[in-house]
Write a structure and sequence with these properties.
The protein has 2 helices and 18 strands. The protein has helices spanning 8-11, 197-204; strands spanning 45-52, 62-66, 72-77, 83-85, 93-100, 107-113, 118-126, 138-142, 148-155, 159-165, 168-174, 182-188, 192-193, 216-228, 231-240, 243-258, 264-275, 294-308. It holds the Pfam family YceI.
Length: 314
């Protein structure tokens, strides 16, 4: 099964400022003169920023603007941070905006330039080329070198403490019918790393993971429900600390593409929330103010790359 997000948003998107036209890929603008991302106040022209579905800048994306007759009136390139800024005012009226970048599917939208000669397009989201199309059916192997299994918990009722597991592996099976896909994964509990050795040793102890008795954390899917063109709910069973519970993953597909080693990779993002008490991890220290030192809920974030085939290329 897959663990991550698709590229449908690059084609759909949000409304453009001042147009009220849905499905353009651009959220509403801020105050006049604010510019994309709060930059470049004043003047005419076009302001925008180009991002991937998971928020990364698309460097050197190209923004092409045409009038309603199809004539190109502007062509601008994004900078290293994905921002597009043009200073040349445009005549008021509707325009077509197309954002393109190598390796990404083009995203088209409609913009309305105001009497000021300016259009603030907000954030344009580009999907990976072929991002909506699911990976080819068959076996896929999770690549732990380019994946992250992370968890966070609230500390003292204020900030969050973040940790990750550094040793894990798994197998994804993509079925012709996506709802029949599956995933199995094993995480080594002792590989927890929060950046503090004393805290990590405590997490490995009987108060929490108890790695001597329960060295592995396991997950096996039991079903998949489609939640959108690029989203699924993965139903499965999580085994941890000697307890097995039903846990759902909110899964988004991020796309498929070639890698430098001659293989094909698919990427996914998944999230879940767990209650420690469900897995018999009830340790806590309550402060005088009645606040728990460690939160009772864990947030789990998975960023997964999987390689097509039964094994990794290295």
């Amino acid at each position: 099964m897959t663990v991550g997000a698709s590229g449908a948003d690059g084609a759909h998107g949000a409304d453009l400022p001042g147009t009220g036209v849905p499905g353009t890929g651009v959220p509403g603008a801020g105050a006049p003169g604010a510019g994309a991302g709060g930059r470049g106040a004043g003047g005419g022209g076009v302001r925008a920023r180009v991002r991937t579905r998971d928020g990364w800048a698309v460097q050197h994306a190209v923004l092409t603007v045409t009038d309603m007759t199809g004539n190109q009136v502007l062509r601008a390139e994004a900078d290293d941070e994905g921002f597009v800024r043009s200073a040349e005012p445009l005549p008021a009226g509707p325009y077509t905006v197309i954002a393109t970048a190598v390796g990404y599917a083009p995203a088209a939208s409609t913009a309305m330039v105001t009497a000021s000669g300016r259009a603030d397009l907000g954030t344009l989201v580009l999907a990976r080329q072929g991002g909506v199309e699911l990976p080819p059916p068959g076996a896929w192997t999770i690549d732990p070198m380019h994946s992250t299994v992370a968890a966070s918990a609230q500390h003292l009722g204020m900030t969050s403490v973040h940790g990750r597991f550094t040793e894990f592996g798994g197998r994804i099976e993509i079925a012709q019918d996506s709802e029949k896909s599956s995933v199995e994964a094993v995480i080594k509990a002792e590989s927890i790393n929060t950046g503090n050795d004393m805290r990590d040793q405590h997490l490995r102890s009987g108060d929490f993971l108890n790695i001597e008795t329960y060295p592995d954390i396991t997950y096996r899917s039991t079903g998949v429900d489609v939640a959108g063109p690029d989203r699924w709910t993965v139903h499965g069973q999580l085994g941890m600390h000697g307890v097995v519970r039903d846990v759902d993953l909110d899964l988004t597909y991020l796309g498929t593409g070639p890698d430098p080693w001659g293989g094909v990779r698919a990427s996914f993002r998944a999230t879940a929330e767990l209650r420690r008490s469900d897995f018999a991890m009830n340790y806590n220290q309550v402060l005088q103010a009645g606040i728990a030192a460690v939160g009772t809920t864990l947030r789990v974030d998975l960023d997964i790359q999987a390689v097509q085939g039964e094994s990794l290329p290295f």
